[in-house]
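User: I'm putting together notes for a lab meeting next week and I want to include a structural view of one of the chains we've been expressing. I don't have a solved structure, so I'd like a prediction I can at least talk through. The sequence is below, exactly as it appears in our construct file.
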Amino acid sequence: MTGELGYDCYAEAMTEQQRKTVIETVRRLLRHELSLPEIEESVGHLSNSKLFRTELEAAFDCVIEYRSADEWETAVRVCEALAVLGWGSRERVDAVAHYNGDCWDTFFVNAAGKRRFRQGRWRKRKAGWVLFNPEFHASPDKPEMPSKDWMQEAGKDFPAIDRPKLASQRNCLKQMPIVMGVSGASNRDTETVSMLRREFAEVLTKHLRPNEYGDALEHLYLTLNCPIPGVDRGPTGLRVGAYRSKQKAFSCDLTIDGGFAALDSAKQMAFLADALRAALSSLEDRFTQKKIPYDMAGLKRDVESAIEDWTTDRS
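Assistant: Thanks for the context. Below is the predicted structure for the 315-residue chain, given as structure tokens.
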């Protein structure tokens, strides 16, 4: 059968009044009229409705390649509803807007921190928010849609929407708080650091408990700066940045000397692990000075457990 919003949906035994409730709730959701408490209340009443789930999933499928700020908000509100209802057989994703220091990003992210579907970058113009150079990340729920880099979308025109800000999901799962990136030329040192970063990140993901530490920190960014021929990257070691309370973020840079790839693996791992320990201690000092509540002791214990696991497996 076809739902009243134009989507295919399952046949379901319900009264006409129940059907009207489902349709009106989805319409209000897609018109962005419901607050988060209202979404939670409405979804709670309709949690056993197959029609409601089907309409939500169909609405989501329509905006996984959003083209405007309004379509992005639709994606956000549907993700909020599905976060309450449950994603069923689908992989849960959250719809997040984040300022990356250069522009605003919007993206869907799963519980493991992997991006799915369209990721957009935005410019704020006089006429409103405009999407530019989006990319697409493959999802197991849409195997027929391969990943696409931003070059495949470069130069396309997207509509400007005048609104105060980009929507971001209000009931997201907390992500893994430690994010490591690699910067460097293509050489053995960079390849070695990239491999170690992947290993370390996987172990940290298994040991850390993002929902348990508090709300003051979303991400600790640790950038691993590998050698680039002809470029002075500064002294070897950790350079600590500032804690940005608005973004709930703390950034550090670790400069790595040439010849890192020639070290034995124990020294390589110890160098990265010690840098992360130092970054956490520096952040702890800032939280203590500013009396910011956060379970740094718990986070540090979990990091130590991950380091022990990582180094033991490698020995």
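A couple of points you could mention at the meeting. Residues 1-14 have pLDDT under 50 and may be disordered. The first strand starts at residue 94 and ends at 99.

User: Perfect, that's what I needed.
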